[in-house]
Amino acid sequence: MKSPDPISVIETAYRLDGDVAGWLAELASVVSKAFGADQGAMAALYDASGENWVQLTAMEASGVPLGLVQSIFNRPDVAGKAIVDLLRSARFSLISQLPEFRDLYRDAIERHGVGDLVAMNDVDPRGVGAMLVIPDQRRNHSYRTQQTWRRVIAHVSAASRLRSTLAAAVGANADLSSQAEAVLSASGRVEHATGPAEARGARESLREALVRMDRARSRRADPEECVELWRGLVAGRWSVVEHFESDGKRYYLAHKNDVELAAHRALTPREEQVLGYAERGHSNKLIAYSLGLSISTVSTLLSKARRKLGKSLELLRTEDE
Fold first, then answer.
1. Sheet harboring 190-193: ordered strands across?
2. Which fold has domain 6-162?
3. For the chain, which residues make up each domain, given as ranges?
4. What is the pLDDT of residues 161-177, one digit of tens each?
5. Which residues contact 201 (CB under 8 A, 6 or more apart)?
6. Whole-angstrom Cα distance, residue 313 to residue 87?
7. What is the widest separation between alpha-carbon atoms in the chain?
8. pLDDT of 221-230, one tens digit each?
9. Closest-CA residue to 40 (of 126, 148, 107, 133)
């Protein structure tokens, strides 16, 4: 049996050409193959920043019956707050293991003969997120598998945020390199840097990230190790994406892609970000992975946030996944 290939999903996520619909359709097709599913997949983007509603901003499917798609995403009978609560907490879930949704979707699942549905979900501190839904024949998924795909969907969420940011900044046809804070050659040499990327430590972090990405691509025999190598961000700030010039020369661009939140009078921007992820249900390990920070740094930032706010933050999940 062919090994799962989650790296192919991450690579697809960071392709910035084309529109959102085409991008989601390709993601759905790739994740179906990468996950080893034979009944297609669905990919969706949403806004769950409100307390009692979710806005589905885009959705595409590949190989999934239209009736099943409609049964999942067109459900006015499902209370908005229930969906908001689910999206704020679920990371890798089988619908059959979610009592509040198992009965709602049982008929559709049985009617289309898919056995069960796996939902991979990531929501950032703004309440904006991404989800991959895959028909699944009630397989048991190991802890390591679940952890790996939680990290994969974190990349999809980050890539969606980057696409939105760049589209607003440069439009559909402009040169993406003009928005990069650093340009690296394929060998890892920093050809250009500006702003925070000019610092020596930042340059070293970007070079190291590129080395890790290359190692991830070359070690596909161990999916978990590969995904662990390719972190969500670099140093809590940059997404590094592949870029080809018109002459075919390959470069890598480092784009600022951390979540921008309204300033809190007591917290630094990084403390606000880490706290925001914790309040969305991320564990310390997943926060560290998503931001490209160490777990100890995340723990320190959360402790500082607690002290500054002067109250207990019951929503913090500091335990391991």
1. 190-193, 182-185, 250-256, 238-244
2. Beta-Lactamase (3.30.450)
3. 6-162, 175-256
4. 999 999 877 665 567 78
5. none
6. 20
7. 58
8. 789 999 999 9
9. 133
